[in-house]
Amino acid sequence: MTTATPAGQVEGLGTVRSPDKAPKRGRSKRTAGEGRLAFILIAPTIALLGVVVGYPIVKAIYQSFLTDQGLDKATGFFNQGGMWTGVTNYKYWLLEKCGSSHCPPGTFGAQFWASVGFTLFVAVVTVTLETIIGMIFALMMNRAFKGRGLIRAVILIPWAIPTAVTAKLWSVVFDPQGILNHVIGAHYQWTSQTWPARFAIIIADTWKTTPFIALLILAGLQGISHDLYESARIDGATAWQRFTKITLPLVKPALAVAVIFRALDALRMYDLPAILTGGANGTTTMSILVVRQLQATNTNSASALSTITFIFIFAISLALVKLFNANIVGAQKPAKEEK
Amino acid sequence: MRTSRGAAVAVILTVGATLAACSNGSSGGTGSNNTNTGQKLAGSGAFTYVTGKDNSGIWAPLAAKWNASHPTMKVTIKQQSDQADQQLSDLEQHFQAKDANYDVVTVDVIWTAEFAAKGWVVPLTGANKLDTSKMLSGPVKAATYAGTLYAAPWASDGGILFYRKDQVKTPPKTWNDIINDCKGKTSPTIQGGKEGCYAGQFAKYEGLTVNAAEAINAAGGQIVKSDGKTPNVDTPQAANGLNFLVNGFKQGYIPKEAIGFQETQSLNAFDAGQLMFMRNWPYAYAIANNAPPNKGSKVAGKFGIAPLPGPNGHGASSLGGHNLAISKYSKHQASGLAFVKWLEEPAQQRFILTKGTLAPVLSSLYQDKSLYKQFPYLPTLYKSIQSAVPRPVTPFYPAVTEAIETNAYAALQGQKSTQQALKDMQAAIKSATGA
Lengths: 339, 435
Hints:
The complex is a heterodimer of chains A (339) and B (435). Chain A is mainly α and 339 residues long. In chain A, 72% of the residues lie in helices and 1% in strands. In chain B, the strands form 3 sheets. A 6-stranded mixed sheet of chain B has the order 2-1-3-11-6-12. In chain B, helix 7 (206-218) crosses helix 8 (236-251). The longest helix of chain B is centred in the N-terminal third of the chain and has 21 residues, at 2-22.
């Protein structure tokens, strides 16, 4: 379900771009009339995207250069704000500048780089763990054995539980007098010490979203023909060789989609740390910081942070797309067929 | 070719991912045009009252009673979620949109200054004056911004000390009494054979601001000056106050688990017999005493209550509670004001206590001995609220509380010294309020 929308966007993109690209490539046999028809057909989509995606982004970027409402010292009331202030809001975050001095601890600005570091850390660790475990799960689910249906269902349960519920469940597990400390015989303050709190979030997130990766990889695995494995076996390939020479290359497109989506998800993580730790103990993500700043009704400064987050995630996703280079583009077709 | 296409894919993915973060487009803001004339509010007719989720079921009977006697200005109750954060965002969104249908709203004491400074609520002065002479002074102060009453104090709250009367004969009056009472009897963890000594709410959230402010105020310090924005927390008095909590963790009279406590966790520990002393709100009384439908408390009947201790005699509670405010955008402000005044009448104030166990703002109810049987904590709560200090009444409350929480938390964890924490707190509040 969740995969439907992003995949649809990828597909839609191809459609959007083809009218101007196609003639140059010279591969199209379309007539001018067909091109016009295609344009008419996709025009509503473009218009809709412009309204629900384009406008808010442009508006947010514009606002990020304006001042927030401030207190008018003479009247004691708030003024409108909204004056042009250039890159002050960006300085507030990127340089942690409050006015002319460095933001003191306890301001939102002073938490920016710490939140970037934590967000990256969580994204790298969770996506790595989830990919490895997800691959193992997918390989298990892909085999024909007794009780396979049950295993598949069990593995998918965490993914089916809403994140907020997951967070509440884990906060019971992580209670200082909770089951986890009881089982491992330790006295960790899971959610109120820096490193335990970070690992608590990683554990809960890995538990919850590994099935998502497993599911996408499973879809990729099921597209691989059994003939390949059979002929490899006849040629004397070991299990490890079959995995690295057949499974991995052929599942890579699906894997790429899974990793990129998960990385984006992890980089904008909000709900899990917000509920589990409230962002305390070095677990403030960039999204939490945006929401905090919005709650403090500093909308324009929050827009600047949103924009920074946007560029940050964009850069990372671009890097990931390049890393998987050929495959993300090639992946559009297999990914479609798998569903 | 491939790169540009890859980049485009990345754009689409990123857009989808961050759209939610960017969707808040309202620049909001009003206020400077608000006048303080106190002209008689106009507009009568049916109106809406907005409040947080009504868990104790007080609003249906109250609305029925009001509607029966005021057929021309019937009230509709709109309930929000039971989470304070969500209530606040809901209110902010409706006020930014100048919604005329949010006629009368409930605002937490800590939001009142912001609502006033944004010009969202009408002052209760001049022809619309609300008689506050019979009310407790703390709640009135918490509803006052820049010398003007902007909301009607309606329900209050104050912290009280719960103590194990089976182990401590007389309730502690000072912080040293607590420490002495615990000597040899308690341990620095609640998970051992011995119980912990004292706990309040020390997780990094609003409750820590409440507890830190109580300690600082009790020792004669203050967080901001009376103008609501000039910080004044980098003082020896404030350091004395905060040190009570910092040393608690260092010396073990506050169990180490308490660094993760919110109200519920501290109450659970007290209920399980793991704490000698607990700071909490009066709601904990019925739960710890296994008043139906509660059960499972091991300390039912074994504990007493007292005003919060301080360095020399009783301390100062932070003030909790809610105010009623009338929207500037309402078209039925006269009805709203009549409703607010009606809710302040003794009958209704008594009802919110007996049915909703909320703390009324009328002094007279605390002296009504007929209520003591059902609410034995009333005299203690009265003392607590009488000496209570409002948390900073500032329109920048979210940023101010962040400054207090972050730095107090770092001090409690031993990551920075008390002095440094207060210095940073001072600077962060200054930066937040632009003072």
